[in-house]
Structure formats: structure tokens, C-alpha cells
Amino acid sequence: MTRLTRVLGTGFAVLVGLFLIAPVVVTVASSLTTTSYVTFPPKGITLRWYAEVFGKPEFLSSFVLSAGVALAAAAISAVVGLAGGLAIHRYRFPGRGALEAVLSSAFAVPTIVLGIGLLQWFAQMGLASSPFTLLLAHLVLTVPYAVRLVLAGLAGLDRSAEKAAAGLGAPPFLVFWHVTLPAVRGALIGGAFFAFITSFDDLTVALFVVTTDLQTLPVRIFNYMQYDYDPTVTAIGTLMVLFAVVAVVVIERFVGVARLFGADTDHK
Amino acid sequence: MRTRTTRQEAERSVSTSTTGTPAGPAARRGRLRLDGVRKVLGGKEVVSAVDLETEPGEFLTLLGPSGCGKTTTLNMVAGHLGADGGVIEVDGTDVTGTPPHRRSMGMVFQSYALFPHMTIADNVAFGLRMRKVPAAERRRQVEEVLEMVGLDGMAGRHPRQLSGGQQQRAALARALVIQPDLLLLDEPFSNLDAQLRVRLREEVVALQRRIGTTTILVTHDQEEALAVSDRIAVMADGVIHQLDRPREIYLRPATDFVAQFIGEVNALDGTATGGGACEVAGARVGATAVGDPPAQGAGVRVYVRPEVVRIQADGDGLRGTVRETRFLGSRIRCVVATGAGEVTAALPFDAQVPAMGEEVTCAWRPSDASMAVR
After folding, report:
1. Alpha-carbon separation of residue B92 from A190, B21, B301 (angstroms)
2. What are the chain A neighbours of B126 within 8 Å (beta carbons)?
């Protein structure tokens, strides 16, 4: 590689990095402004807007709702993803092809279409808006992804290893526990992580499903911004970024984020 | 520690005595019997009425092309597939309906099938853990078996850090450490390069002779089968065509399939003349009947390997004209056109080479050729 291409390459990488990080920098910086409107660069430094956030109980209750639904979505996605992935990978049953097709095309459906559709469905079924309907709506987004990840994990598992374990004296449950489950462990954690982020982040679907009493954090911020565009919003945004960073660090501690997204970290 | 070992020994002798054989060395266990075993997969009978019986300590190979039912048969022996008919017995105990984890069989696979997330030591210890062997004893046995397969010092590695040959040794250790009734090898050498394949198979044979575990090998490689087996069962289309020692299989094939599948063969059509002899193109030639001798006058096919054919100037045998001679290094290939078609001879490199167009006689010892009813 010549010197020039190396310099250009580095320059390009820096630009891309800046482009990705700039909105976050703006949000974090402007949350510290002393002005009562959002501005960048911030004028002066104050933590007043953070105090504002904690002074508004509706934001806290929205956060609790969002986090609760996201946790549930993560857990259920992992379990259903495992069961669905195993069923599709291992068994031949009527409708298997259709199920796989639906699961893989679910990504292609715009979330706004999904929101409208779900609104209709829930109304028809007489389901009142509740954390439960919100969870159902988010599962539609997250389960297909979890199933996909589990399928990819299973594809990497040699069935002979399961046979070997059985031959060595492991009854079916222990074969599953010691051989099958470790093969999809990364997929399950990745699926759960994705489900949590998707659910916690979702605005489009939630807009259709929630009521005024039941607002997720993104919906709350969205509604708040329509009337007040003060730095409270950027303070919340900063807190959400912090929250995500903590989550990533925790997961990195236990599994490693790279491995979670299927990167092969073992270069032998 | 000492009491544990004693208890282990006691358990082992109890388990052998319950299988009906007197407590003795491992070599006395491992008598496998298949009686009319069948398997239907996807509407097709892939294994039809297979009968088989091994001697304890025997190395038996199921040899055949892909799709012949050899792997299906092995999977039924291991319990991974249920039999659709027939009986599978180990040491007199019917195991036909027994799930794999209650059969005592160590299996080694083409793909090694090691548990990727466990170290080599944990892989090998797996079977012992399932048997609730105490940790200290487990460590001792793992160490011992790893040394036996030449993997001492690799215990802490993960499978992906090992070469193919090393992984297969580890898989072998994992299968052997549980002291199985049977060792089942499913194409274990096929993923290795040619040199390593030969070396590892020699090691496996030596190990098997030493520990005396009855071993069933599945392979499509006839040279491998000839090299390692006490007996070979040649399979095609779900049936065993011939079950015999390698020498018999090679020199005296029972069917066209066996003759053609294993090496090169001269197949000559003739007529039985009774008393273990026959006539081919007007000449009397000797061949050994496999099974019942064919009735006088029956149409037979004689199978002669090129290596056993001698070319002589005269004498009893099949007369013909030399068509082609070719020096191949270890052998000289000589093709003779006879009344029964071309006969190929593989002569030793120092043999008297006949001239092209010379009239010669092809002869062989009757015990080195076989005949079967057409």
C-alpha cells in the first residue's frame, strides 16, 4: 500500500467515525447549556436539565415501562427464538416452509405498516392498550431476528457431536444442555440483546399502540418535543446513551459484543 | 482414592457378569450380533435383512459405496436410528430398543465431532462425567488415555487449536475412555490427508489389538478395509454381499459386485464341470466355489485377480495372444487376448516378459480364484 492510499484511508475512516459520533456529541453537549432552548455549542455549563428530568415523574414511569417491556421482549424472544429455530432446523412439519418465509420477510415490513396493522388487530380482538399489547407488538419485530440467529447458530453445529454425546451416555436433556445449547448460546444472547434494543428504541410501532396513560420513553420524548423543545430532551437523550453504553459494557464483560454478532474472534 | 478404585473395579466386574459372560479381560466382551436387521428411510429399504456376528475383540469393517447402507447399519448399532425389523444383540443382551445413551458404545465420526466449547480434557472426560466418575479418578483416566493416543500435553487446548489428526486422536480417546463394549468408527480417516490417514489407521489398529475392544469400521476405501480388518463385510444396496477375511474377499469374491468394487479383476464366463472345476473357452481352469459348489453344467463366472495370473509358454490353462505389455514400476501389466476375452496379468517386475503377439498360457492356482453361479 502506498503512503497516499494509507493517508486517504485513515482520513476516510476518521470522517465516517465523526459522522457517526457527531449527533451524539451535539446531544450530550447541548444538554449542558444554560439557555432554555437547545443550542450547540452550549452556552455555559449546567446540570439543571438533568434535575428537570428527575423532577418529571412521567419520564421515570415511561422509563420503567420501556425497560420492563424491553426486558420481557428480550427474554421471550430468546426462548421463542430457540424453540422456533430448533423446530425449523430439526423437524419437517406442514407449514414449515411458510413459517420460515414469514420469519425472513418480517424484516421487510415497514414498522409503520406493522403499527397500523396491529392497531386494527388489537381493536378487533378487543385488546385494550396495555404493556402486554405493547410487548406483543415488539415481539413481532424481535422474534424473527432471534429465530434467524438461532438458525445460524444451529447451522454451525455438527449433529455428530450430539450423537457422540448420546453415545457417551448423555440422555437427551443432557445432550441438549451440554452440546446443543452452547452452540446457540451466542445467538440467544445476541437475539435477546437485539430484542432489548429494538423494543427500548421503538417509536413507530409504539405510537400506534399506546394511549396517553401508557407512553414508552421514546413516545414520551416525541410528544414532549412537540410542545417544549428545551434541553430536557437532550438530557434524557444523554441518559439513554449512557444506559446503552452501560449495557454494552456489561455484555462485553460476559460474552463479548463482537462474538455476539457472529464475528469469529478466534483466529487460530 | 484407593477405595474408589476398588469400588470401580467391583462395578466393572458386576456389569460384566450381568451381561452373561464371566468376569475377565475386556477382550471377552463385545460380541455383536445382528439378525435380520432392516431399515426403511423415505419409503426405500436402505438396509435389508442384515445378519452379522462378531467375535469379541474382532476388527470388522463394513465396506461399500456411498448409499449402500453401511452407515445406516452402524447408526442402528449405536442406537441413533431405530431398526424397522430384526434384532441387535450385544453379549447376548437384546439392545434393539435401547436408546444410545444406555448402550455402551464409543463412536468416532468423520467430522471428529468434538465439543467445540470444551477443552480436550473436558471432551474426553465427558463420558466419565455422565457415568458420575469422581473428579480425581476422571483426571487420572483422561491423562492415561490421552497419553495412549499421543496427546499428552494437549489436555488444555480447544479442538480448533488442534490439527485434524490430533482432533481425531482426541475423539478416539473420548470414545475409548468409557471402555465401551464396542468401538464404532464412521469413516474416521476420510477427512485426513493421504499420508496421515495411513499413519493414523496403523496406530488405531495397533491400539485396538492392544486393548482388544471389538471394533466396527465403516469405510468406502477398500485398501483401508483390507489393511485393517480381521473380517470385511462388503455391502451394496442394503445387503451384505460377502463377509470374510480380507484375503478371501480379495482373492475369492463371491459376487460381481465384490469382485468389481475391490481392485481390478478378470471376470471370465464358463461352465461348471463339477468337483470344483470349470471350463472356460474350452480350457479346464481351477477356481474355488464360494458357498455350495455349482452343479455340473451350470453357467459360472470365474474371478481372477491380475496379480495371481502367471504367463507361461505352455502347460494347462487359458491359451491366448499377448496384446500389450507395459512397465508400471512395481508391476508389469500384460494383456492377453483369449477365447474368453482379455485377461490382464500383473507380473512381478523381474518376471520374464513375453513378446507382443506371442502365444501363451494364462494359469493360476485354483485356490487363488473363485467362481460363482451366473
Report:
1. 50, 9, 39
2. 165, 168, 170, 178
CB-nearest to A167 from B106, B111, B114 is B106
Alpha carbon of A196: minimum distance to chain B alpha carbons (Å): 26
For chain B, how many residues are written? 374
What are B261-275's pLDDT values in tens digits?
A: 998 999 999 999 877
A192 C-beta neighbours (distance < 10 Å), count: 24
The beta-carbon neighbor of A167 closest among B107, B131, B161 is B107
Residue B330, domain CATH: 2.40.50.140
Q: How far apart are CA B303 and CA B366, in angstroms?
A: 11
Domain shared by B270 and B161, yes or no: no
What is the rounded CA–CA span in Å between residue B300 and residue B277? 10
* CB atoms near residue A165 (< 10 Å): 27
Tell me which residue in B102, B116, B126 faces A165 most closely, judged by beta carbons. Answer: B126
The answer to whether A165 contacts chain B (CB < 8 Å) is yes
Cβ atoms < 10 Å from Cβ of B218: 25
Q: pLDDT, tens digit, for every residue of A156-213?
A: 888 899 999 999 999 999 999 999 999 898 889 888 988 998 898 888 888 888 877 7
pLDDT band of residue B290 (cuts 50, 70, 90) is confident
Cell numbers 466386574 correspond to what residue? B13
**ipTM of the complex model:** 0.81
B130/A268 CB distance under 8 A? no
Q: Closest Cα to residue A163, out of B109, B246, B274, B233?
A: B109
Number of Cβ within 10 Å of residue B251's Cβ equals 19
Cell of A100: 420460515
pLDDT at position B90, please? 93
**Residue span of the structural domain in which B141 resides:** 32-251
Do B270 and B242 belong to one domain? Answer: no
Query: Last residue of some domain: B217, B251, B285?
Result: B251
Closest-approach residue (CA) in chain B for A179: B115
pTM over 0.90: no
Q: Which three cell numbers stand for residue B83?
A: 431398526
Lookup: cell for B196: 496421515
Partners of B164 on chain A (C-beta within 8 Å) are: none
Structural domains in chain A, sorted by start: 50-260 (1.10.3720.10)
CB contact under 8 A, B174 and A164: yes
